[in-house]
Amino acid sequence: xxxxxxxxxxxxxxxxxxxxxxxxxxxxxxxxxxxxxxxxxxxxxxxxxxxxxxxxxxxxxxxxxxxxxxxxxxxxxxxxxxxxxxxxxxxxxxxxxxxxxxxxxxxxxxxxxxxxxxxxxxxxxxxxxxxxxxxxxxxxxxxxxxxxxxxxxxxxxxxxxxxxxxxxxxxxxxxxxxxxxxxxxxxxxxxxxxxxxxxxxxxxxxxxxxxxxxxxxxxxxxxxxxxxxxxxxxxxxxxxxxxxxxxxxxxxxxxxxxxxxxxxxxxxxxxxxxxxxxxxxxxxxxxxxxxxxxxxxxxxxxxxxxxxxxxxxxxxxxxxxx
Length: 322
Known about the structure:
- The protein is α/β, with parallel strands linked by helices.
- It has 12 helices and 8 strands.
- Among the domains are: 45-143, Conserved hypothetical protein from pyrococcus furiosus pfu- 392566-001, ParB domain (Alpha-Beta Complex); 217-311, no CATH class.
- Helices cover 48% and strands 12% of the residues.
- A 5-stranded mixed beta sheet has the order 1-5-3-4-2. The protein has a 3-stranded antiparallel beta sheet with strand order 6-7-8, with helices on one face.
- The longest helix is centred in the C-terminal third of the chain and has 25 residues, at 293-317.
- It is elongated, with a radius of gyration of 27 Å.
């Protein structure tokens, strides 16, 4: 079972190391003072403190593909208006009066924009416990996407963390970790950073995209495709556009003479309706079932009739209709 780093049982007083036999018996006062000092240290270590953000180092593994984005500005504005509602967690550094971030990187970045101290819980954790705390808190607050978890797993493995620690950090079984690892090993890191976290895109879809890597340069295709999309296009729509472009290339092995493009079609509210891919071989319309299940069903039932209507309209406009 995964270890819960947030509700650790208090230390049992019987677990404390026995007094050294070399110490003299009459040292009752120092012993009492020492016990009080240890108790105060334990209380302080688990309390919330105000810390200067400049004293906190942003080290450790990244569990997010995007940190400095528009959402940081929105979070900073919320903190400016309402204050910091949730503390971050840090651990003491080897350097005096400095700390290392455990979790709360986005909150720390936002407060650095706002100015002033950051509310932080200070805990003395080793590397394994720090990583587990980071992963568990991240899963509780905002579930990372499949590809973010896969990247996090890859970083943890490369850093030498044991399988049990990785499973505890993300709350996954051994098979779950393996499923993420199999996909991430087939995809270039650059491709993932171009597309982004792609929330809502799961293992099967990323796995299908990885298959194209055997026959095509996914980084080049993704760079060209995303460059043609409107600024601010959501990451999941970028994935769909790249997948559509790769699918079109797979269906047309002959080298393209240029002029291919992919467009995201949106409704009046700015939500994605589907993608339109145009190249020298075909014009393809793709409607993602996951994003628009009801519309995709309707489109499937009426696509033939709609296409015929468009064809009839085209014939009438050019004067060749019946």
